[in-house]
Design a protein that fits this description.
heterodimer; A: mainly alpha; Helix Hairpins; 3 helices; B: mainly alpha; Four Helix Bundle (Hemerythrin (Met), subunit A); 2 domains
Chain lengths: 100, 179
């Protein structure tokens, strides 16, 4: 029997990798991909907890999170295509219009 | 003594962490997306060790089958020759590293001090008896019916929104040349 803490620590490490990728990469596609990593860490957390406390609430929530993640990916990538069409760049530090 | 269960967990955990760490560090975006695809398969295996077969199937169908393919299409926007030559991290990535270490510390501390709630009524034997898909379906379509409907509306909005945003404007052919 694997203790639930192992799963939680694994999810924490995965979430941190996602945070690192989101904060340091220049490419916006990689930033969105890091968000997917973070969402997966949260899903792992919910599934392991719901397994160990013998409820199904966490797994139902994971089901909804996966659906919303699909919506988020579609919208985010759509915005990205529009952004690329207007600015011809996909690097986050090149988009400095708000700086004036 | 390492049991089989622990060995499988160790393999999956090392694969998940290694693949995702490589994915955020690699220079080529196509390689990153493919590594994340592999990571999603290992995550589905992790769900199987937690007796969540239905979620493992959904993970493979939705994440690996739909979302990652969408990412691969968008990666074709990137000028790969340029991307392989220029700097891949932002200039002040020391700040990001510090924030990451802080997040990791806080989350690990929270994970260690986790105390499980009193167990609910969906024990493993009960789920095995009526199968996991049926159990989760019974839960969704009784207690979580309204969130399920709202999820459908959210998906509809996402489909319409993505089409509206990514569509080409026909009446104005403007060339925005902001540097």
């Amino acid at each position: 029997m694997i203790p639930v803490t192992w799963y939680l620590i694994l999810a924490a490490c995965l979430f941190s990798i996602g945070v690192y990728g989101f904060l340091t990469r220049r490419n916006i596609i990689l930033m969105l991909l890091s968000i997917e990593l973070m969402l997966n860490a949260v899903n792992l957390n919910l599934v392991s907890m719901s397994h160990y406390i013998q409820g199904l609430r966490g797994q139902v929530l994971t089901f909804f999170i996966i659906a919303v993640a699909a919506a988020e990916a579609a919208i985010g990538l759509g915005i990205l295509i529009g952004l690329y069409r207007n600015h011809k760049t996909l690097h986050a530090d090149k988009m400095t219009i708000l700086k004036g | 003594m390492i049991t089989l269960q622990q060995a499988i967990f160790a393999y999956l955990a090392i694969a998940i962490l290694g693949l995702s760490a490589a994915a955020v560090n690699l220079r080529n975006p196509v390689h990153s997306v493919l590594l994340v695809l592999l990571m999603f398969f290992h995550m589905a295996g992790m769900y199987l060790t937690l007796n969540a077969e239905f979620l493992a199937a959904v993970q493979i169908i939705v994440y690996a089958g739909a979302i990652l393919v969408l990412y691969l299409f968008v990666v074709f926007l990137v000028d790969l020759n340029l991307e392989l030559r220029i700097e891949r991290f932002v200039r002040n990535h020391a700040t990001g590293t510090v924030i990451t270490i802080g997040v990791l510390t806080v989350l690990t501390a929270a994970a260690i001090s986790f105390v499980p709630a009193p167990p609910g009524h969906w024990s493993i034997e009960m789920i095995r008896e009526i199968t996991h898909t049926r159990a989760i379906g019974a839960e969704i379509f009784s207690n979580y019916l309204l969130p399920f409907e709202i999820t459908g509306v959210i998906l509809l909005i996402a489909v319409v929104g993505a089409m509206v945003i990514a569509r080409k404007d026909k009446n104005e052919k403007r060339e925005v040349t902001r540097s």
